[in-house]
Amino acid sequence: MTLHGVHSVEQPPERRDRAWGVLERTLDLEALDEATEVVGLEGAVEAAERILASRIRGRVVVDVRA
């Protein structure tokens, strides 16, 4: 998934609500989970280096409590 030029804060609340509704109905949560890597704060720098080097696909979530 690629998001281009999304500035949700500039959209009226009704439009944001509709967009979230579409995501809720159509987003494949299992696929999103498979494309997600969770790292602790100690792994954030290394993950950032992999992102900048285009060696990562999907998304990285930094769990500051891990």
Total number of helices: 3
- Which bin fits the share of residues in helices? 40-55%
Q: Report the β-strand fraction as a percent range.
A: 15-25%
The main pleated sheet reads as:
2 strands, parallel
Description:
The protein is about 45% helix and about 15% strand. It is of the alpha+beta class and about 70 residues long. It has a two-stranded parallel sheet with strand order 1-2. Helix 3 (about 45-50) links the parallel strand 1 and strand 2.
Notable traits:
15% strand, 44% helix, 66 residues, alpha+beta, single chain
Provide a short characterization of the protein structure.
By secondary structure, the chain is of the alpha+beta class.
Itemize the secondary structure elements and their pairings.
Blueprint: H1 13-26, H2 29-34, E1 36-40, H3 44-52, E2 59-63
Parallel strand pairs: 1-2
